[in-house]
Amino acid sequence: MERQTFMTETDYDEYLMFVFGLFDFEKSGFIDLAVFKMGMQAFGKPINSMDASKIERDIEKMGVDGVDFETFKRIYIKSFGPLNSSAELEKAFSIISGNEDPFITLDKLKEITSRMQLSFNERELRNIMKEFDHDKDEKITIEDVKRAYK
Fold this sequence. Notes:
Blueprint: H1 9-23, E1 30-31, H2 33-42, H3 49-62, E2 67-68, H4 69-80, H5 86-97, E3 103-104, H6 106-115, H7 122-132, E4 140-141, H8 142-148
Antiparallel strand pairs: 1-2, 3-4
Helix pairs in contact: 1-4
């Protein structure tokens, strides 16, 4: 049976850019290798020492400050596969939301961004809520996220 795809390649790239941005604390376009490894661990996909060594060598060869988006994308897709089913999106949502509730409130969004050491002001966080909260119940649910990527 063929899996139903609900995200276009562009949507998936935008999703990955969002996830990448959660770890790009300095908004430099690079994620520090230690932060990258910690992030992948948080997503339940720890980087083994052989992969970490290869990434480190690649970073040194490129002469850059960390993992760039294309490297992140390649490793993320290798670890998780393409995010093209509701079940996969639900798993990603559950990880980001912290598995506690089936929704994200403004306070939870503040907690998530704080935990990720991202600095958003109140207005920016409210705009994120508005962008995803399609039913205007002041909660972002998995259904809201799916609607945003249709």
